[in-house]
Amino acid sequence: MRISLVGTRGVPARYGGFETAVDEIGTRLVAQGHEVTVYCRTEPGQERPDEHNGMKLIYLPKLRRRSLETLSHTALSLAHHARHGNADAMIVFNSANSVLLPLTWLRRTPVATHVDGLEWRRGKWGPTGQKYYRVAEALAVRWSDRLIADADGISDYYREEFAADTERIAYGAPILSDLDTDLLEAEGLTKGGYHLVVARFEKENNVLPAVQGYLRSDAKLPLVLVGSAPYASDYTAEIERLAASDPRIRLMGGVWNQDLLDQMYAHAATYIHGHSVGGTNPSLLRAMGAASPVLAYDVCFNREVLGADGQFFDSPDALAALLNAAEQSPQSMQDLGTELQSRVGTMYTWDVVAKLYEALCDDMARGNSQRGRFSGRRRRESTWRH
């Protein structure tokens, strides 16, 4: 098949979950003999190879404004496809792009929309942005040939809100074992000697409560924060202010060396995961695959992924108690990490994920579509808070 992947920053993956998914899935689809095209955003000073792991790369610009980056690039990508494309099936990532789906009809290309999480709950969007995302969700339901949800909680949402069916396809993660500590030690860190947060500095990722919880704890090990905010904000400034108040807190910014990041996951005393509005989070899975003990924000998505081997907090004080207990019982935490790694190996592998995407694309290419089956109207009896 000829398969196009649209709506992300592109590959190689350097940013987030969607990009990692495209990289891992696309590479495996190519290995199965499919022709895969990935639309990539142009960046200043960026190298622009024609292919990556066998995937054909097409580079197009975007508007450098938070609210328009994704939409502007996807509009150009789908316009390019309408003029030059020949895909048998397309995956569009992010429900925000659903307003552009009619462009795919020009080539009669069947498209599955990966709806991601509950974007309208993200703190970075104001009332207009939140309203837009809720409209985009409805259009994704109405105009997509298929919908992809990466967690049961997201599937439940679309079923209750729209009475719509979704394809449940999670993310995957590698199993990371017996990793060296050389890159870790070069950064002044030691095996089992720090607590770790890896996240963009946005409200729904609860980085600030993680820092507050750490400061309220009796933890002796340092707190290492990996990540930043692509756009400056008061939220980021408050995190930086608190970090400056305590020498135990270290801000590392973005870490793009994946080998270093893997070592950081694998050798952390705990991984603190504050993401609250997405589905199956790739960073969480990567920590689990590295056997990192996880302290996670208490929402249905994180409980689904972690199962009985996660520990959960819903406030800075609750996190402080978990951190205290973790430092008092390091062997128990290591045992939890081992159980989480086993969970990834049985439930969240990229090989299985890629096969599910392949089967979905094949089904769409054969003409099986649910477009028009669901109205996109919200159900009054939905239990989800609006």
From TrEMBL:
Coiled-coil parts of chain: none
UniProt protein name: Glycosyltransferase involved in cell wall biosynthesis
UniProt entry tagged with the keyword Transport: no
Annotated ranges, domain Glycosyltransferase subfamily 4-like N-terminal: 16-170
A biological process term (GO) from this entry: lipopolysaccharide biosynthetic process
Organism: Rudaeicoccus suwonensis
InterPro entries listed in its UniProt record: Glyco_trans_4-like_N
One annotated GO molecular function: glycosyltransferase activity
